[in-house]
Amino acid sequence: MLEASYTGYPLYFHRPSGTSRGVMVEKPCWFIRLRQSDGVVGTGEVSFIPGLSVEDPAEIEIQLDHICKLISRGFMDPGQSLPSLPGIQFALESAMLDLEGGGKQILFPSDFTRGSTGIPINGLIWMGDTGFMKQQIEQKIASGFRVLKLKVGALETEEELEVLSWIRSRYGTLELEIRLDANGAWTPEEALQKMEQFAAFGIHSLEQPVAPGKWEGLGMVCREASIPVALDEELIGLDADREGPGLLDTVKPHYLILKPGLLGGFLNSERWIGLAGERRIGWWVTSALESSVGLSAIAQWTYGLSSSIPQGLGTGKIYRNNLPSPLRMEGGSLWYHPRGAWDLSMMNATQG
Description:
Layout: E1 3-8, E2 11-19, E3 22-27, E4 30-35, E5 41-46, H1 60-72, H2 86-100, E6 119-120, E7 123-125, H3 130-142, E8 147-151, H4 157-168, E9 177-181, H5 188-198, E10 203-207, H6 215-224, E11 229-231, H7 240-251, E12 255-258, H8 260-263, H9 266-278, E13 282-285, H10 292-303, E14 327-330, E15 333-336, E16 350-351
Helix pairs in contact: 3-4, 5-6, 7-9
């Protein structure tokens, strides 16, 4: 018999972080713990972003309480599919994998968790005034990053073009790869116009130019795009087996961006990878601003996919109260140093 409980632990950004959806200063976070009778505890993070996740912000803690009680009373299998609660399903899947590994936060043992190799990642540049964005870019490049991801869609286009021009005046396309993420900021017509302007700077790809759910318009953008299009938010809330083929065959994107925390976990994400492979669509994995617990789980799974594309896993330093872990960003890669210590005691702020 398993005993399940949850812990609330709000995450606080070092500084307000902007996207086209608004500015974030904190992020709700919960952890699910599954305890065996021998005392071994498996921990998983509930991945949740208000306004983006499927779960209702007003109901998610009620659902967590209910699910933990059902598991503890033996009325629910923690491996049960929860299509309407993908962030909670991700936490349960992670907690079960952690439990199987002895509760040491090693979900997928590999050369990555043994510390002998890292995962190439992109450097994330948050929206802000041009001075702040240039400061971030200089810091990332000095740290060894050769792939940058810039949030676009909130500033005036002229300001964003000025930042891109500034980058390319210093670093050519062979030296630095640039990815853009619009977070669904534009109409299809706006997207095509702006992409034409951005294309002059040798852009690798543009994530989610159009708000989710507008398949026909998004398909038109993909057909006429001057920059390869990647789908991100478009996948959230969809059933890969039932709705995935229709989406991909209608839109025909160039890439998929996989957020296991918001897609219902690793098995569900692997379904999307299978669909992409059948259609020769590229893909890479990103975090959904999880703490070090969720980021570590995603990174360990990602390493096992043997992808050579730099991943979107560079979010470990954005919080001032992140949980200490063996994860480190070094030279444009994410590393796991096994001699580093996990400290999960900080998550005991509140418990359900």
